[in-house]
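Tokens for chain A. Residues wanted.
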């Protein structure tokens, strides 16, 4: 029989898949003897069953009732008992943290009778009515589907009538009236009354949390964070403890280290006379956690002891929620905290220094996505004036964009290609689409543990919270700071590292991490932490890392960034600019002699290019791809030529013979689908002299470098192979030219000849192709297009966003390798290629070579190297090291 409910005393953090992250960690804290209010967890299995069948799992109600009875027996009170009620919180708890994305219902058990008993037993009438209004509001919006804004409007109206700055300015009578107003809202909007039965409240709250797993904001968050849709959420039912009992009570969030920078110390927020949702919602500005030390030194000392216990136990940054109830500390939650990329590297290095984790574990906790963010520029603060405002630096980085004041406008403008900054008083989970669309988030309220801060950090978005100098006017769609008014659409700059907001577009400066990769300069502790991670990654990785580079400058930069060669040198990029005329002459040649003259003019130019690249990569392999695109791409646009000729005719001018000749060539070469037409190896086989010219240029560049004392290691790659016969014919021509150059120069020239595997047929016949190839390099961009039947330039804008929204794609197959389809072809080609030629060298040179998750796949598939753009080389090096560690996930390692 399936079991659906576990008491906190029965679980542990190793059960996170079943109990969810929150439930598993509550059980772990209970096991450690920390002061956790007792409770139980309804499992993710129960949620999955409910979502699959649409009904409550058989036996769940009985299990919940049994556990509730034990909770009541231990407390000496019953749920909703009229004279002294036991009250419960009902909270979500997924396997992976999804802050604010699902539902919570607090104070379950209150009704028109028990609220009076709570007022009497607590001796605090205002507290009782405040708790009741919270329950009615949460239950109404979460369980009954009433628009939460209606409750907020009622609260705001009451505060205006009473002249109250916040909810603390309302007395017991005000709150009792608000409860009645809320209940009337529910009757009007939901068509039913707020339930007075505590058992019904509990049962419906649990099912509402289950349903919230498939809520719009939860689905969007999972897509953004690549969390699977089939995990479901657990539900944690826990005895309520109250931070809103007066000045000797309160709630807070604490971090064992700064989640923005990774520095050690006391970090967090505290709010007296408040419940936990008040802290994260940002409805009142919190005070720094140290203030608790002044208000309640004993509770603060106990909290610091528990923080030290948890960090030592989890061996990582811990994010902790707590409540102080009339001076007594209660621990409500812990989890391994979300952090910025800067904090991830710093914490990993410091924990390794402290002996809490190994170097391998430290490497597993950082990731390529975070490293890429650290390489982004930051604001040059020496070149800007005074900021508009200061706030709390909640998530670092530099972002520039037009100020917008609601999520829908952020999404609209971003979809049109505009960069935006989302400005709010505070964010709620409903703002998630706008936060995803924005470059940065700016709020006038809240702290480092507010919703805006936590979600922005998790997404790697720039965020400044609690900028109290800013007054946000949502109705007029503007904000003011001092004497400055910023209207919607006005560009502002947000510095998430310093917590500052500047008018206009502030100038950017290179990051210290980028400077380290460029120069080797160790500027600060963060750079040292990054350097240590890179050194360890290089020490453990099996995958080599090369760069895609087409010029000596790009090759030199790639080498500084740690590239171990060039995996893709695109020769077509050498035919652009002034050289187009020579290509045109080759295409338009009417005789062999004309064609030979054009090719002869191109030869020294190509030779010079190759010599420069081989010099920059001296001693390292340089894989040079023969011409890949169709020749018509080097000719003027067909429509442009036709218009030029028509305009000349309309003006009575004689038409250009050259233009007419070019148009004739373009029409002759026109293809309906050139991606699948005369290109790659096909062009080399039918365009006389083209392959020979390119190979001679490569061979003569090798000779030039050898004579100069260099160590050139050129490799020749034939693109778009479909069949082994194509490769055999080209290989024979390549070898003839290499032999000719060797004989002419007296310098032996040997260049390994291989091919790109970028068509499904090539992958499926890799065993045959390997008979003629010394190496394979997967061109995953074209392999993805031809496997899926997509033309990337056409389909990404046409329907990819819809496919992502509908869940057909978890991520674009051009961003991360499609393991089931394209990846399967890669695995087949690797296995069959090496079976035919043991020791066959295999790499990848598509854009996937710099994608963290794809790098892990290429490691597991047995490739020898990945190749990517120069700026992605550090990312690939780091992820290749992480891929060599057992059980390491991709991303930021947290």
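Reply:
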């Amino acid at each position: 029989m399936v079991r659906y409910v576990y008491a906190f005393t029965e679980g542990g953090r190793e059960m996170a898949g079943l109990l969810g992250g929150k439930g598993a960690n509550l059980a772990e804290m209970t096991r450690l003897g920390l002061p956790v209010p007792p409770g139980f967890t309804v499992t993710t299995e129960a949620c999955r069953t409910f979502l699959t069948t649409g009904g409550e799992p058989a036996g769940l109600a009985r299990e919940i009732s049994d556990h509730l009875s034990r909770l009541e027996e231990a407390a000496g009170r019953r749920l909703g008992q009229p004279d002294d009620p036991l009250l419960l919180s009902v909270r979500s708890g997924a396997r992976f943290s999804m802050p604010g994305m699902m539902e919570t219902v607090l104070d379950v058990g209150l009704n028109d009778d028990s609220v009076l008993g709570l007022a009497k037993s607590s001796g605090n009438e205002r507290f009782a009515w405040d708790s009741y209004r919270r329950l009615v509001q949460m239950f109404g919006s979460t369980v009954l589907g009433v628009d939460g804004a209606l409750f907020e409007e009622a609260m705001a109206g009451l505060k205006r009538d009473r002249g109250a700055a916040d909810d603390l300015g309302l007395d017991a009578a005000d709150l009792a009236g608000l409860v009645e107003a809320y209940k009337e809202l529910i009757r009007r909007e939901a068509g039913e009354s707020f339930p007075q039965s505590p058992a019904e409240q509990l049962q419906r709250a649990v099912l509402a949390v289950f349903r919230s797993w498939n809520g719009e904001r939860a689905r969007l968050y999972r897509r953004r964070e690549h969390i699977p849709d089939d995990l479901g959420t657990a539900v944690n039912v826990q005895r309520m403890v109250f931070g809103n009992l007066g000045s000797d009570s309160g709630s807070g969030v604490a971090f064992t280290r700064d989640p923005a920078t990774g520095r050690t110390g006391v970090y967090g927020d505290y709010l007296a006379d408040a419940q936990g949702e008040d802290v994260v919602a940002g409805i009142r500005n919190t005070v720094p956690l140290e203030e608790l030390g002044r208000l309640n030194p004993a509770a603060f000392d106990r909290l610091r002891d528990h923080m030290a216990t948890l960090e030592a136990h989890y061996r990582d940054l811990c994010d902790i929620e707590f409540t102080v109830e009339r001076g007594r500390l209660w621990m409500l939650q812990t989890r391994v905290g979300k952090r910025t990329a800067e904090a991830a590297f710093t914490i990993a290095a410091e924990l390794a220094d402290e002996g809490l984790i190994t170097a391998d574990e430290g490497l597993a906790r950082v990731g390529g996505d975070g490293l890429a963010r650290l390489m982004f520029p930051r604001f040059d603060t020496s070149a800007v004036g005074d900021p508009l405002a200061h706030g709390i630096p909640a998530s670092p980085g530099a972002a520039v964009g037009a100020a917008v004041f609601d999520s829908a406008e952020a999404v609209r403008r971003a979809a049109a290609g505009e960069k935006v900054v989302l400005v709010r008083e505070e964010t709620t989970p409903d703002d998630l689409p706008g936060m995803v669309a924005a470059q940065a988030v700016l709020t006038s309220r809240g702290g480092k543990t507010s919703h805006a801060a936590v979600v922005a950090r998790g997404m790697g978005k720039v965020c400044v919270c609690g900028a109290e100098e800013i007054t946000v006017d949502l109705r007029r769609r503007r904000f003011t700071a001092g004497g400055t008014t910023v209207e919607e659409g006005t560009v502002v700059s947000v510095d998430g590292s310093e917590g500052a907001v500047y008018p206009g577009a502030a100038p950017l400066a290179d990051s210290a991490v980028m400077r380290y990769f460029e120069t080797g300069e160790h500027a600060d502790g963060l750079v040292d932490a990054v350097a240590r991670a890179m050194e360890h990654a290089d020490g453990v990785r099996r995958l080599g890392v090369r760069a895609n580079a087409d010029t000596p400058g790009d090759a030199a930069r790639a080498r500084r960034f740690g590239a171990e060669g060039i995996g893709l040198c695109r020769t077509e990029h050498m035919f652009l600019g002034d050289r187009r005329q020579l290509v045109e002459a080759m295409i338009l040649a009417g005789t062999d002699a004309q064609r030979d003259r054009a090719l002869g003019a191109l030869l020294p130019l190509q030779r010079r290019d190759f010599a420069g690249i081989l010099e920059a990569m001296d001693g390292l392999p340089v894989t040079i791809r023969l011409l890949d695109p169709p020749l018509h791409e080097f000719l003027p646009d067909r429509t442009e030529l036709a218009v030029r000729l028509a305009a000349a005719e309309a003006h009575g001018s004689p038409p250009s013979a050259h233009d007419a000749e070019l148009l004739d060539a373009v029409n002759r070469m026109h293809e309906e689908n050139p991606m699948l037409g005369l290109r790659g190896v096909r062009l080399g086989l039918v365009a006389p002299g083209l392959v020979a010219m390119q190979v001679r240029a490569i061979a003569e560049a090798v000779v030039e470098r050898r004579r100069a004392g260099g160590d050139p290691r050129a490799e020749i790659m034939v693109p778009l192979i479909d069949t082994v016969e194509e490769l055999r014919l080209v290989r024979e021509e390549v070898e003839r030219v290499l032999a000719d150059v060797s004989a002419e120069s007296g310098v032996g020239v040997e260049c390994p000849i291989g091919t790109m595997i970028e068509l499904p047929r090539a992958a499926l016949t890799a065993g045959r192709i390997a008979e003629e190839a010394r190496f394979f390099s997967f061109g995953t961009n074209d392999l993805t297009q031809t496997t899926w039947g997509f033309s990337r330039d056409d389909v990404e804008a046409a329907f990819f966003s819809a496919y992502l929204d509908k869940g057909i794609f978890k991520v674009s197959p051009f961003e991360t390798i499609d393991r089931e389809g394209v990846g399967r072809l890669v695995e087949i080609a690797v296995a069959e290629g090496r079976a035919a030629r043991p020791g066959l060298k295999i790499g990848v040179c598509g854009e996937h070579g710099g994608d963290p998750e794809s790098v892990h796949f290429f490691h597991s598939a047995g490739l020898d190297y990945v190749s990517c753009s120069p700026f992605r080389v550090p990312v690939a090096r780091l992820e290749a090291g992480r891929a060599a560690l057992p059980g390491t996930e991709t991303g930021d390692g947290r």
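The longest helix spans residues 592-616. The radius of gyration is 33 Å.
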